[in-house]
Amino acid sequence: STQSTWGIFFMLSHKSATRFLHLRCSRLFCTVKEIPPLIEELASGVLSGQRRSLSRAITLVESARPDHQRLANILLRRVLEAQKPPSIRVGISGAPGAGKSSFLEAMGMYICDTIPDARVAVLAVDPSSSISGGSILGDKTRMQGLAIHDRAFVRPTPSGGILGGVARYTTNTMLLCEAAGYNHIFIETVGAGQSEFQVADMVDVFVLLAQPMGGDFLQGMKRGIIEMADLVVINKAESEFRALARAARSEFRGALQFIPARHREWQPEVLLCSAKEKENMNGVYDAFQKIVSLLRKTGEFDTQRATQRRTWMWREVEAEIKSRIERNPAVQKLLVSQTPSVLSGEITPADAADQIVDAFFSDMSTKYTHHH
To answer: Alpha helices, DSSP H only, in the chain?
Structure first.
């Protein structure tokens, strides 16, 4: 597992780890002395706000090929050299049927049509099929109006099967969108597993979207999800569902009284809206702005973003080490003999993991010695 791999990694000798990191860094920095012309052209297109260039750049970032990842790192460094005004990052989560896509389209259209100079990017994390590896939902087809708006960008991002549904490269995709001038970033989760916790570590405002339901429906919701919410929005508060929506608002308000707020000066609010009828989009948007303004005033905005960058860094370190171990020839050779033994129960997964990591670092040490 990932945790056992990390445990073994940190028990390795300091000398082996230092050699590995030195080799990794020497390879990384030797690639950025000159920026390839194609990457420079792509970066210029992104910085000028060209949607086609942005799409190509995101495709590069999402690629799992090592050579593409090296180019993606160069591209990201290049575009981040240009300082852009900070955007508002909003995470949207909720159970299936809450109307996340319809809410995002209504909110995105409201922002684009009423806020001067606003540009909206929606990153809809799309679960990947464990059989075909392809995406399943295709949220772009469910936001047809927003997808063709000249000041909006909608991108379904395949999760690649990563636990929780948040794509490994969603953070880099978000940075590319900001470099392209999109100052309102929305990240929609699939609403399953650990995705909500991962998205909360990526955004300024985390929104829990719910729908009107009868009975004690709060009993079926995880406490942790409600604890993370800066804002609860009851969607579908329209026609015959208005009474149920008001009842749901009362239930949420009651529950939130007993849950510690995430921020010092902000007590989570519960709002009603209707994406279908385009009702109270302005009220929800004003709440986004109110939260961000308060975070800036208290200094939490910068602190939170700095903490998030540190979290992203360690996630990337973990993913990169795991990827390099899986691709290593010595490890692949060992897996041929060890996998059947693990499957049959002859050796434990922990023993096999220990041998795999030892083989990896032994191979890295050999390459390091030959390199110097």
So the answer is: 2-11, 14-29, 37-47, 51-62, 66-80, 100-114, 144-147, 170-179, 195-200, 223-228, 242-256, 281-298, 300-327, 329-344, 349-371
